[in-house]
TrEMBL record:
A UniProt-annotated Pfam family: Rhodanese
Gene3D superfamilies, per database record: Rhodanese-like domain
Signal sequence, renumbered to the chain: 1-17
Taxonomy, superkingdom: Bacteria
Keyword tags: Signal
Name listed for the protein in its UniProt record: Rhodanese-like domain protein
Residue span, Rhodanese domain: 31-132
Keyword Nuclease (UniProt): no
InterPro entries for this protein: Rhodanese-like_dom, Rhodanese-like_dom_sf
């Protein structure tokens, strides 16, 4: 029940929040500067499509669409120690990151970025390399 309330709150808050969508060049610049990158897709997607080198696997939605709050926030907490620290999130097409990113900003995170177009319509279409396990 707590998870349902938290997800509902995140989705509701996302209506009033805003965060930054960045292109591939800005993404690479921030990553090179040490900004953590979290890939919020599922393990299946990592295997099928690959992932961006240097990104941290931090699934937010299960393959059934259920939020994995504890796992995601544990990984986020190991990378981002203060709500003012920047970090980047990405998914397949930037639809899941919009929901999550808006919710994170509403929770007080100040520097949340998403990869515009996600890994498929942003990164791969720009001709950038992915890693496959």
């Amino acid at each position: 029940m707590k998870k349902i309330l938290l997800v509902t709150a995140l989705l509701t808050m996302s209506l009033f929040a805003d965060f930054k969508s960045i292109g591939v060049e800005e993404f690479k610049k921030l990553q090179k500067e040490g900004t953590p990158v979290l890939d919020i897709r599922t393990a299946f997607e990592w295997q099928e499509v690959g992932f961006i080198d240097g990104s941290h696997k931090a699934t937010f939605f299960s393959e059934q669409g259920q939020p994995l709050l504890a796992d995601f926030f544990y990984t986020l907490g190991t990378l981002v120690k203060d709500k003012s620290e920047p970090f980047i999130i990405y998914c397949a097409h930037a639809s899941r990151t919009k929901v999550l990113g808006d919710g994170l900003v509403a929770m007080g995170f100040e520097n949340v970025y998403e990869l515009k177009g996600g890994i498929e319509n942003g990164w791969i279409k720009a001709g950038e390399r992915v890693i496959k396990d």
